[in-house]
Amino acid sequence: MIPDKPPKEDVFHGSEDLKKEAHISSFEKYKELYLKSIENPDEFWGDIAKDFFWKTKHTGQFLDYNFDVTKGEIFVKCMEGASTNICYNVLDRNVHERKLGDKVAFYWEGNEPGDELTVTYRELLQRVCQFANVLKSQGVKKGDRVSIYMPMVVELVVAMLACVRIGAVHSIVFAGFSAESLCERIMDSQCSLLITADGFYRGDKLINLKLLADEALQKCRDKGFPVKRCIMLKHLSKEAEQTLGSPPAKRSCPDLQQEKQTGRVKKTRPVPQVPWNPDVDLCWHTLVCGESDECEPEWCESEDPLFVLYTSGSTGKPKGVLHTISGYMLYTATTFKLVFDYQPDDVYWCTADIGWITGHSYITYGPLANGATSVLFEGLPTYPDVSRMWEIVDKYHVTKFYTAPTAIRLLMKYGSEPVQKYKRESLKVLGTVGEPINPEAWQWYYTVVGEKRCPIVDTFWQTETGGHVLTPLPAATPMKPGSATFPFFGVVPAILNESGEELEGPNEGYLVFKQPWPGVMRTVQGNHQRFETTYFKKFPGYYVTGDGCRRDKDGYFWITGRIDDMLNVSGHLLSTAEVESALVEHEVVAEAAVVGRPHPVKGESLYCFVTLTDGVTFSRALETDLKKQVREKIGAIATPDFIQEAPTLPKTRSGKIMRRVLRKIACDERDMGDISTLADSSVVEELFQNRCSTAV
């Protein structure tokens, strides 16, 4: 599975300085540890578990499982018999045992430049204990479900860690989701309490979060599921600042003033009118006042639930992915430490939202378990200008930077000048997450942002996997632009054909995993049958990712996109990601999305949407040039049938392209279904107005 030696050509390496300090500094060391993790997982993970606190030790084998639906119920169990508390391990252990109380846990950077806060590990522990006591005073106990619907503020981390301190299960809903989505998730996970905020700004846009939360709670009542309590944080109100002295970001209504450091003028922001229901609503700040900053942790069994997080389902109904305590803690801590080659003096920044799995694993649990210092960012990469990210990198001397290909492609549109305004000398490792990165964006990231001295860890994983499963390691595995490289420790991938047969050597097919790792999901909330059907029924004995994958002659894995993003054109399977990459290679194409539409002869035809760089006009000549480029890059079979200019693509608030919407546009079908998660729904009508004529 792992080649004896790494390839020599077409690869990129990290700096020699990085190799000197790296945890895993050579390909040979990686291979040695990988084989140990597969052949003797009990010893491999047992050694890692020694770095954590266990109230009781585990008995029996480290991992027990069944992946074969024909042999009984699917299950994964890790460290049965052990008990611990993840909050104790990420906070108390760092403050008391590792003496990191005065170390910065988070640099909070608000939406507005100059809106900032620093929180140490000791301060974070005190706040978490206070809010844990608040939850207990409201009757929340071990096993109860708590819904959290908050912006990117320190109190979001406080709320989730307070839940796990007392053994409650958090269900975080991204603050960009609609009231209907929040209601659906509250009811599905049977939440007894909601935690939210008055509102927040994303760039210039005000989000009245409490209004949405109230609408969701009314929908719950209408459906016979009343939520008895809602705790609201005053994030935008000055009142919280004045009466409680509680940061963060109660500063979005500042007086007009000149910022000495940046020379920017802060904008006066209107505060939303906050609805209030005295029978349900409680004020965060009032509740916290007077609460003790000490709270004994609730000791939990290894396989007790930690959190439920919802992800898209093929049926349209979101799946509540359930993760459990010990395995998830070990896996996120280990992947964070090794994939980002974490060192004690690092300042790490993941630009994701905590409402997604990336924020759970690589803003909260993984970094805190390692005693890391992180940047927590409320704003947008383009607000107030397109240099914001690099300004923050220099401000906090960020060493490890983790973002999405969508953000990289967005910033590529503006060229290198906004990046090169700032030094970025502190950067050592760059990472990508969320989707496969096309080689052109990879090269720009590597060359312009990292100045050819920072290795890129292009990580493949899912909400379901809990942490990275295919990834480079910064100083150990040579990189190929766009490749997810090799499996992480304990992960055994395989590529199957349609008949479920394992394919050896260079090949392409379904990506599956042959055995579990500690951080893999355990079930779908309230529906274990759906868990088994979705991930294990198609190929018994394997966890099915739902992604296509190619393995090259050197053994590198390349994610080709979701299986449902594979197109069958005249009997040939084509990857939409491959066609998109060919289009984006053209110098005037900033972003591309490809979908299929029915064709009477070929089965499916390719309908392409392209966003052009600033100042370029779409023309027939350009369309011909793009078709020629795809034909030359992939082959005549991949020649697009239709190419439509898309000034903006329909994206969720997290930046993911909604391909379901694009398919509807390509097929001229106006019944869009639920598009409440779109960041800008007006994009849809604009694309319909400019769609290509598809008459055959």
Automatic annotation (TrEMBL):
This is Propionate--CoA ligase. It comes from the Eukaryota. InterPro entries: ACAS_N, AMP-bd_C, AMP-bd_C_sf, AMP-binding_CS, AMP-dep_synth/lig_dom, ANL_N_sf. It catalyses: acetate + ATP + CoA = acetyl-CoA + AMP + diphosphate; propanoate + ATP + CoA = propanoyl-CoA + AMP + diphosphate. Its EC number is 6.2.1.1, 6.2.1.17. One of its GO terms (biological process) is acetyl-CoA biosynthetic process. Residues 30-90 form the Acetyl-coenzyme A synthetase N-terminal domain. The gene is ACSS2. CDD domains: ACS. GO terms for cellular component: cytoplasm.
